[in-house]
Design brief:
Blueprint: H1 5-8, H2 12-30, H3 34-43, H4 64-70, E1 82-88, E2 96-101, H5 102-118, E3 126-129, H6 137-149, E4 152-154, H7 161-170, E5 175-178, H8 180-192, E6 204-208, H9 214-224, E7 227-234, E8 239-245, E9 252-254, E10 259-264, E11 278-284, E12 295-301, E13 303-304, E14 316-317, E15 322-323, E16 328-330, E17 333-335, H10 337-345, E18 350-361, E19 364-373, H11 375-378, H12 382-400, E20 405-410, E21 424-426
Parallel strand pairs: 3-4, 3-5, 5-6, 6-7, 18-21, 19-20
Antiparallel strand pairs: 1-2, 7-8, 8-9, 9-14, 10-11, 11-12, 12-15, 13-14, 16-17, 18-19
5'-O-[hydroxy(phenylacetyl)phosphoryl]adenosine is lined by residues 88, 136-138, 208-211, 230-235, 239-240, 297, 299, 320, 323.
Length: 430
Amino acid sequence: MFWQKEIETLTADDLNKLQLERLRQTVARAALSPFYGDRLRQAGVNPDSLQTVADIRRIPFTTKDELRTNSRQMLTVPLSDIIRLHASSGTTGQATVIYYTRTDIELWADLVARSLYMTGMRPEDVFQNMMGYGLFTGGLGFHYGAERLGALTIPAGAGNSKRQVQLLQQFETTAIHIIPSYALVLLNTFAALNVDPRDLPLRLAYIGAEPYSEAIRRRIEEAYGLKAYNCYGLSEMNGPGVAFECLEQNGSHVWEDSFLLEVIDPETLEPAPPGVVGELVFTNLTRQGMPLLRYRSRDLASYDDRPCPCGRNSRRLSRIQGRTDDMIILKGVNIFPVQIDRVLMELPEVGSNYLVELRQEGATDQMIVKVEIKQEYFQEELTFLKGLQKRITDALKSELLLTPRVELVEHNSLPQTEGKAVRVVDYRQK
Ligand code: DLL
């Protein structure tokens, strides 16, 4: 189950040595860029002054805002050596742009191939990539990785649900890459076409790019009759293939030969111990064109450094609990959208979609949770629906510690997206 066994099974000691060597190379390379050249000089850091991996803490963090405004100044090579760019749309402000050399693209493809191989994909598989091909890294990132592995790769792109089902049938697809919220929405198309996804030869799904609960994974696995593996990444660190679940489905292995991970308390900026949720900070260890040093991702998760039965020693990340910038603050209570997901998706009556609205009503703020109910339950009597509404409200209340207003809506009635789901709309005046 190893694509690059030697690297994937390095002992903690050997990994540490490799990381130090690569960190020094990366710092030397980053110093060639105007942005990091200045920054490293000011911090008084050069490759020789890094005696241990922990010395990285002498380098200041790089923030999303700095990346937004300085990405061209972070290049270490002339533009003629750059062959591609990707950009993260982001929900806030200007897009962040990442530039790749040919080597960067190759190394990235290798990491994705390594991830897919780890979960059992083989050249015999037929892989349908249902992700947006474009500036988003989910499309081309997986495409190159699956080709590198040698699987027959169908560049289906996002959306066009009927066509997706036809392609699945026609080419006897065995593996898919799909946004988890879209995987649930696509079930409506299967139902309309009277096709049971369990009758197809599908056996693997890769799901990621947005936060989702374990209950959503179970729903996808059951409805499609396959194994679904979590895939984590961010454009700033190439895209998908930064951390990936193995067959144990027990946290996502960070590819630590390529990314140096720090988990920090976002307030004190001190390192967080294993098992404690903190902000993920990444440093590229192999990127050529635009290495980032100590990039604050804003993603919140914890790590586990115990050995994994799969034989890999790299640290495993928990699910992303949320982002420091998508936390809802309502009536003084802090809420992460994935908490709402967790509660709703555990309830069998709840369908595939929901929407959280935040509104100012009079002097107070209100959370309205619109929940699609599966068709068979929507036809039930009013007393049943009232009871269900109360059960959902109570379940949310005990998780969130405030009482939202729950509205039950018919299935397929809320806005749907082919890309990352928009689950929260804030109408409050800022
Ligand atoms: O979403 C890269 C990707 C593509 C990952 C396909 C997985 C599959 P961005 O558009 O830059 O890149 O968005 C990155 O999405 O910082 C997280 O907040 C979130 N995210 C990505 N993967 C996961 C995941 C791609 N498995 C941002 N679970 C990240 C939770 C995720 N959140």
